[in-house]
Fold this sequence. Notes:
There is one protein chain. By secondary structure, the chain is mainly α. The model has no long low-confidence stretch (mean pLDDT 90). Helices cover 91% and strands 0% of the residues. It is built from five helices and no strands. Helix 1 packs antiparallel against helix 2 (25-42). The radius of gyration is 20 Å and the shape is elongated. The chain has a domain at 63-128.
Amino acid sequence: MEIIKIAGVALITCIAALLVKQIKPEIAIFVSICGGIVILFLCVNYLTEILGVFNFVVEKTGLNAKLFNLILKIIGVGYITEFSANICNDSGQSSLSDKILLAGKIIIFSMSIPIIKTIIEIIAGLLP
């Protein structure tokens, strides 16, 4: 089970960061970032599988592939935003973390405008 590997890496990273923090506090954040990157690499197979499902849906439904690509980009922005905000929080920079979250929300909203327009066009086309 992959989650056991992920939990193990997370616990080892957490313990290592705590130990390093006692000796060299400025390096502890890098230990946490490295652990997070290892966890992301452990999830790559699942991401590939998800992309395959999205491609299958696009092929079978004939829907606009650009919209699905946009949805994937929005999801990516959300994950990157959360990941970087959590790193800032962990390093004690909660104000910076809040600004990253705000910027991520604004970017996601602006990226979703074409999807909103498409939904409105579909609804308008159904109305008499």
